[in-house]
Request: fold
Amino acid sequence: MPFSVLMSIYSATGAVELSNCLKSLTEQHLAPDQIVLVRDGPVHPSVEQCIEKYAAYLPFEHLYFPENRGLGYALRDGLEACENELIARVDSDDTSVPQRFASQLDYLVNNPT
Reply:
């Protein structure tokens, strides 16, 4: 079953934490079909370099906003850009275990209510 990942970053996002997060997404047993990455205002050049590093491995869709509006607005707009019914939320400092998405999807399939 296809699913999207939704993530927002902003000026305080650190490149090291984001790199750990994106690396963990490349190691998933079940890969997402889409990663909506919302830039809520400008981010540090090292964060942009980190994203470029993983662009060859992850299916990014980018949303850019010139000013930081806050997480709620960023996620609302990112949600509208998600192409799939199932959406996993990931914070930029999360490190996901390799079976995270497979386990979550398995649970949803086996517990439809």
Observations:
- The mean pLDDT is 97.
- The CA atoms of residues 56 and 88 lie 21 Å apart.
- The two ends are 17 Å apart (CA to CA).
